[in-house]
Write a structure and sequence with these properties.
Length: 199
């Protein structure tokens, strides 16, 4: 079974694209969603986060997101430390999930692959790209966020031009009506790639 990475900048449409692969019966793993779940359920993560942030890290057994966000905002080094706790646990969880799948390939959606040089964890990589103004507007609408917050995140992500150079496939998501066709075409190419590399 091969692992296909699905990446792209904030608001590019990764999850929207992942759901289209799911409709083709391809198992999808959304790293961000799983990380959020694990932060509330994994005792290992909980213990380490309390050690890092103190008892206030959890409120009624749920991650105290506003407190964590404030702490990270005031001291950026906390983000790296939190990632160092959460990412390995997500990696282990993904391996357990993968062992239960029965499909020619799986899709793992992760916003950050190239930025952290994680390409070697994937057999193929798909990047979703879209015009910056469209991404900005979509995220503002979805999260009731501000342009400043979204632009600050974009600034820390690799540009679409650089991502395209490093990707095996690219999906242009400026217009929802073309998405399904692009996904079907890539799905066929991946299946062909698997056939050609396993003979
Ligand atoms: P994030 O990086 O924040 O996790 P994402 O890359 O997974 O985001 P989505 O959540 O799939 O992106 O899309 C962001 C928002 O834009 C969603 O509300 C989605 O419904 C909407 N959206 C996605 N694609 C399009 C499109 N082509 N036209 C209009 N809206 C879209």
């Amino acid at each position: 079974m091969i692992i296909v990475g699905l990446t792209g900048g904030i608001g590019s449409g990764k999850t929207t694209v992942a759901k289209l692969f799911e409709s083709l019966n391809i198992p999808i793993y959304i790293a961000d969603v799983e990380a959020k779940l694990l932060m509330n359920t994994s005792t290992g993560i909980k213990e380490k986060l309390v050690e890092l942030f103190g008892e206030k890290a959890y409120l009624n057994d749920e991650l105290n997101r506003p407190f964590i966000a404030d702490t990270i905002f005031n001291n950026k080094s906390y983000l790296k430390k939190m990632n160092a706790i959460v990412h390995p646990e997500v990696g282990t969880h993904f391996k357990q999930w993968l062992a239960q799948q029965n499909s020619p390939y799986v899709i793992k959606e992760a916003a950050i692959i190239f930025e952290h040089q994680k390409q070697s964890q994937y057999d193929l990589i798909i990047s979703v790209i879209a015009d910056e103004d469209k991404r900005l507007q979509r995220v503002i609408n979805r999260d009731q966020s501000t342009p400043e917050k979204v632009l600050a995140i974009m600034k820390n992500q690799m540009s679409d031009i650089d991502k395209v150079k490093l990707s095996d496939f690219v999906i242009v998501n400026n217009d929802k009506s073309t998405l399904k066709k692009q996904v079907q075409k890539i799905h066929k190419s991946i299946l062909k790639h698997i056939k050609n590399t396993t003979i």
